[in-house]
């Protein structure tokens, strides 16, 4: 009596990780992993911006300007700007973790606004503003270079 041959091995399951070889994604691990890092950076930036905004609203004597600049604004107004941009950045950053298209669009707009705000914030916090501008540029790069792995 002959025994039945064992069934052939099942084909490997497709790789469903973003940017994986079988996912149909971008194939660029920097962009796909960068989106997760971009979301994390947006949440962290948002929390810092909220705290920075609350500080400027509560006591506008905390920050001082380094020189005369064309774009001088009231620090309480800057506090409200940072508070609003920070809340939007946290929301969009959390949305990036889901891979939602709306989160990428809102995230790009919020980061664009944050880049402008940080440029205008240079007289008050020059080193922090430069760090946040570079971080924002990376977030924009990751948002624009990400390709969805979901089937169309």
UniProtKB/TrEMBL annotation:
Residues 36-147 form the DUF7144 domain. It comes from the Bacteria. Residues 1-15 have a biased composition (Pro residues). InterPro entries: DUF7144. It holds the Pfam family DUF7144. The chain crosses the membrane at residues 35-57, 77-97, 102-121, 127-146. Coiled coil: none annotated. Keywords: Membrane, Transmembrane, Transmembrane helix. This is DUF7144 domain-containing protein.
């Amino acid at each position: 009596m002959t025994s039945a041959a064992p069934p052939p091995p099942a084909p490997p399951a497709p790789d469903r990780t973003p940017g994986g070889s079988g996912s149909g994604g971008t194939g660029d691990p920097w962009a796909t992993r960068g989106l997760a890092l971009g979301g994390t950076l947006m949440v962290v930036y948002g929390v810092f911006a909220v705290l920075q905004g609350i500080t400027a609203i509560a006591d506008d004597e905390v920050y001082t300007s380094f020189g005369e600049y064309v774009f001088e604004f009231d620090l309480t107004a800057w506090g409200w700007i940072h508070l609003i941009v920070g809340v939007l950045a946290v929301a969009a950053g959390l949305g990036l973790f889901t891979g939602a298209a709306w989160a990428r669009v809102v995230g790009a707009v919020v980061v664009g606004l944050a880049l402008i705000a940080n440029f205008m914030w240079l007289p008050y916090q020059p080193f922090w503003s430069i760090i946040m501008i570079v971080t924002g540029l990376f977030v924009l790069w990751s948002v624009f270079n990400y390709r969805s792995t979901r089937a169309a």
